[in-house]
Amino acid sequence: MRDLRSKCVSTGHRGPAGKYRTLLAAAATVIVGLGNAAAEAPTTRAEPPANVAPPAAPAAEPDLRAAIRQVEKRGYRVESSDTYSASARLKVLIGKRPGAVVGADNQRALESRAFFFANDRFVGTDSLKPSARIQLAWQNDDTVALQYVLYRQGDPLCCPTGGDSVVRFGLEGSKVVALDPVPREEVRAPR
Q: Smaller CB count within 10 Å for the chain: N or C?
């Protein structure tokens, strides 16, 4: 072993242990250098454009859970709680459930309904009958706008050709009311 060490020293070769020490020292130098470069880099914060509303505050967990339970009690499932704005006076959750076989393609429709809440209480739905597709268009403190996908006679569930309609909802006393006409039941789902 001594001969190997002396041979390595005399030829300038540091042996396997020396290689690892050299690699470790080089890696440490790079890491320290990167740390210093990151510390010296200026930090900038991108501000949202003035015309974009800030994201909604996270929903108050107990209120949201209670609202979801109300939707489930009515036989629907909430796929996303992103529509529930905890800071708004009027809140909405969109619930879905399996529906009847419909449309030219004989697919099972998902029935969708919007469930509204104010002051942590259920205040109503968007309509008496469910729709095939509803999504949140926009909302502010006291108004919720829903976008309904519209179907024509013979449209398959997958491919509506009737366009869409945006309907605003607001509070009137302790009830939710449509501020615009809700599309007729026969165009909100395939027939």
A: N
What separation in angstroms does the CA of 79 have from each of 68, 94, 99, 115?
A: 10, 8, 16, 13
CA dist 140 to 39, 90, 175, Å? 41, 8, 17
Written as six digits, the tokens of 169 are 């909802």
The residues pairing with 112 across neighbouring beta strands, listed in sequence order, are 96, 131
Q: Is 143 in the same domain as 65?
A: yes
* Diameter of the chain measured on Cα atoms: 96
CB atoms within 10 A of CB 7: 11
Lookup: tokens for 152:
């024509």
Domain of 98 in residue numbering reads as: 61-187
pLDDT in tens, 149-189: 999 998 888 899 999 999 999 999 889 999 999 999 999 98
